[in-house]
Amino acid sequence: MENVVLYKHGRLSIFVVVAMLVIAFRAAPSSAQLSASSAGFRSLTFTLSVPSRSFLLFEPVPVTITLENRTAQPVAAHAALSFSARTVEVLIQPEGISAYRVEQLSPVTFRGQVRPLTLPPGFREASTEPLILNLQKILPTPGKYGIQAVLRNLDDQEILSNVVAIEVVQPVGLDQLAHQFLTDSGKVDFFFVGGGVAGDPVRYDEYETFARIYQGTVYADYANLSLGQLHEARREIDTARTFFAKVTKRNEYAAQRAAEALKRLPAQ
């Protein structure tokens, strides 16, 4: 993870990226669009929020990013806020330590979803996704962390969100046992996105066993969610419904995705 420098602005700490990777994808807006974007992109309001609670060590952290045009003029930009579009970066700063950029936010990239748009006054778009990959690296220990998002425009301009603070705490009880299992397995980096489950029967059995033994933990919620999504993709509706129904409300993102799936599935 590359380090960034933390600058002070009044009483607010703002992360500034010192070195950025060159993003392979480059959209090609017209010169008129570029001109409008250069004039107005930084006038857009870009905010970040997270649930107001502490998070367990290695628990995925739901992040909501919102883009708004609160000005009186249309602004040329884009509204691709999904992590898979690779227009958003996330910076993290542990308390008392230099900030760093999260190297991978999504297991997939969909570059075609970035399109030049004219955002009218009153425009608002929000996206909620979890910090879910490589949690051993990006939120490695209990403690307090600052999180900030950066949105890059098609001409490589950027705007910074506000900084939010979270606290990561040590799990206890059954959560602690589930956490220890994940740590010992050495597979926690991609565990919460169902890495390898679809094509590997052994991996599937590991997920199913983990979800059953540690049912009710925030970690099992993501295993059940992954298994439900797999069976839904296979059109095995009854099995998918069973796994989705096991997802608890402890983690907001997992609970929302499971609830949406249960509404989406055909009636029994």
Structural commentary:
- With 268 residues, the protein is α+β, with helices and mostly antiparallel strands.
- Helix content is 29%, strand content 27%.
- The chain is built from seven helices and twelve strands.
- It has helices spanning 31-40, 135-138, 173-185, 201-213, 218-233, 237-245, 252-264, and strands spanning 3-9, 12-16, 45-49, 55-56, 61-68, 75-77, 88-94, 99-101, 117-119, 124-131, 143-152, 158-169.
- The strands form three sheets. The chain has a seven-stranded mixed β-sheet, with no helix packed on it.
- Strand 1 and strand 2 form a beta hairpin.
- Helix 4 (201-213) crosses helix 5 and helix 5 runs antiparallel to helix 6.
- The radius of gyration is 20 Å and the shape is globular.
- The chain starts with a strand and ends with a helix.
List the helices and strands and how they pair.
Elements: E1 3-9, E2 12-16, H1 31-40, E3 45-49, E4 55-56, E5 61-68, E6 75-77, E7 88-94, E8 99-101, E9 117-119, E10 124-131, H2 135-138, E11 143-152, E12 158-169, H3 173-185, H4 201-213, H5 218-233, H6 237-245, H7 252-264
Parallel strand pairs: 4-12
Antiparallel strand pairs: 1-2, 1-8, 3-5, 5-10, 6-9, 7-8, 7-11, 11-12
Helix pairs in contact: 4-5, 5-6, 5-7
